[in-house]
Prior knowledge:
The chain has a domain at 36-113. The chain is 71% helix and 0% strand. The protein has helices at residues 10-19, 23-31, 38-49, 54-59, 64-78, 84-113. Helix 5 packs across helix 6 (84-113). The radius of gyration is 21 Å and the shape is elongated.
Amino acid sequence: MAKITLEVPDELSEQLAQIGDRLPELLALSIQQPPLPARIYQYILNFLASEPTPEEILAFRPTAEMQSRLQTLLARSQAGELTTTEQRELDEYERIEHLMVMVKAGNLSYLKEHE
């Protein structure tokens, strides 16, 4: 196991002393944060939990904030300027888009049956 020495403010040092040997676990958890802010996942989960109609599912779109961020990430990607963190974020947006395409495709048969 590697040993790391850090300089931290006295206040933080006292807090770290209280957690003792849990510090490696807490550091690992802090690094493994989701690639997107929690509000993005919450937006999608709230929509799905609202029991949307097939028509509402087909009309579902990302928020303006999400669209803007995605455009920025795509532009940076095309320019070859993405950081590792931004690449993870872009990958997550792509996974969400794929999931929503699958959800929408699953509703197409329902819509055709009820036309």
